[in-house]
UniProtKB/TrEMBL annotation:
It comes from Amycolatopsis iheyensis. Belongs to the acyl-CoA dehydrogenase family. One of its GO terms (molecular function) is oxidoreductase activity, acting on the CH-CH group of donors. Pfam families: Acyl-CoA_dh_1 (PF00441). This is Acyl-CoA/acyl-ACP dehydrogenase.
Length: 315
């Protein structure tokens, strides 16, 4: 495969979208085997990223949960472990604002933010200090706080804070393994594929608006051409990376390319459409609200500076 973005856009989720409807679709995909993606780092990494881009192009909330599950499965495979059959997984590793989990006597304590799939998932891989552990989310010591998530973008992602109060945990790899393993960079580049798909979905919405109107002026056409070019260039970066050894430099480049493309597509798409579909088309409004929230997993200039540092050191 030499492309990540299919010529025909996937059928989007019905609108309005809800946490329940997204969860049901995720479970349906899981049951059908659609979340059984090729493992990263092999000969079919591009196929894996194409599937992730397709989820993002269809719906970014669905993609967020699908990417988390598939990443967890890949991490377990890298640790020579198997997931619990039939279980939906997530990876909860944020350490925001001084929060984070810790491992004490084989149990997890602490608060983790930005946990998606609070009521949907059965298992999670949790970063506890410098260790990664697997927990059963049915344990009574897992306390969910969905009200912590106040965003309009990614509103149906079933996200929020989780407080762990002595939850039994199983180690996944030795201390420091989670971020030191080769798959860490591959996982980061896989998220970039989701962002790329989300940006393609925004362009799909702008094109649908123009086709419905039956006309486009030269300025609108120029923006369409620029968006197409930006998406094609970022796609080429990821396709090339999928065929190479994905290290920190390659993964950082993929993420920077996808983030820059998402920002440009968002700006240009709204110039093409004006306010009408953002105010009157719920699906388009969701797309332009979801993408800037999700893509901010890239830390803008901070991540670019880290990339620049890597480039300088590799020169």
């Amino acid at each position: 495969m030499n492309v990540l973005l299919a010529a025909t856009p996937p059928k989007p989720l019905p609108s309005p979208r809800t946490t329940a409807s997204v969860g049901a679709e995720l479970r349906s995909l899981h049951a059908a085997g659609a979340l059984e993606l090729p493992l990263p780092g092999g000969a079919r990494t591009a196929d894996r990223w194409a599937a992730l881009a397709g989820f993002g192009r269809r719906d970014l909330v669905l993609a967020r949960l699908a990417e988390g599950h598939t990443d967890a499965v890949a991490i377990l495979a890298e640790a020579d472990r198997s997931p619990v059959p039939g279980a939906l997984y997530g990876v909860w590793a944020a350490k925001s604002g001084g929060t984070g989990a810790a491992l004490q006597n084989g149990s997890v304590t602490g608060t983790v933010r930005f946990c998606s799939g609070l009521s949907t998932l059965e298992r999670a891989l949790v970063a506890a200090g410098d260790q990664l552990v697997e927990v059963d989310l049915a344990d009574p010591g897992v306390r969910r706080h969905p009200d912590a998530w106040q965003a309009v973008g990614m509103d149906a992602s079933d996200s929020g804070d989780v407080v762990f109060d002595g939850v039994p945990a199983t180690l996944v790899g030795p201390p420091g393994w989670y971020v030191a393993r080769p798959g860490f960079a591959l996982g980061g580049a896989g998220v970039a594929a989701v962002w790329l798909g989300g940006a393609a979905g925004v362009l799909d919405g702008a094109l649908a608006y123009l086709r419905e109107r039956g006309e486009a002026d030269e300025h609108q056409l120029a923006h369409v051409g620029a968006m197409h070019t930006a998406l094609s260039c970022a796609e080429a970066v990821l396709v090339r990376a999928a065929a190479a050894e994905v290290n920190a430099l390659v993964a950082g480049t993929c993420r920077a390319a996808a983030e820059r493309t998402a920002v440009e597509v968002l700006e240009r798409a709204l110039k093409v459409t004006g306010p009408t579909p953002a105010c009157r088309d719920r699906r388009f409004a969701q797309r332009v609200a979801d993408l800037p929230v999700y893509v901010r997993q890239h830390h803008a200039e901070r991540d670019l500076a880290a990339l620049g540092r890597t480039v300088l050191g590799a020169a």
